[in-house]
Amino acid sequence: MTFHAAVFIATSLDGYIARPDGSIDWLTERGEQAGDTGYDEFMASIDTVVMGRNTFEKVLTFGFWPYEGKHVEVLSTTLDPAIDERIIVHRTLDGLVETLADRGARRIYADGGVVIQTFLRAGLLNELTITTAPVLIGSGLPLFGALDNDVTLVHNATRTLKAGFVQSDYTVIR
């Protein structure tokens, strides 16, 4: 594998990345209170974004395209490949990885619960940055799902942001 895959994501304190309906209002209503999370610096280091259909559809509701100048790959078995000229749709993980290798992708931003879980199970993730919001939402879409094996992490740092947000960085050991 020639690329380095990273996650940069926020969760509720109870481990959810979205409400059951996909809403992230619990984050958008308070996220700016956290101050500088390092997201802009992280995005400056990324050449490719990989997401699933649900995340892509959520991004389309933002009213602007946040990935200008980045390659954007969407892993989906159902999304119409011609839906948006800014993305490339991949039906399989193998096809996606082949495209990334062929193009010489260097730093990948893996975004969205299913993509993150898929990358973890396939041994494709190198690092995790998880920002925890000081809110319990009770139910929703979890960041992590079932795994075939334990995933060993090395804790690199934890920092306290503003308004009770906490951010931890981990390296994934393979």
From TrEMBL:
GO molecular function, a single term: 5-amino-6-(5-phosphoribosylamino)uracil reductase activity
GO biological process terms held by the UniProt record: riboflavin biosynthetic process
Domain Bacterial bifunctional deaminase-reductase C-terminal: 7-162
Coiled-coil positions: none
Protein name: Dihydrofolate reductase
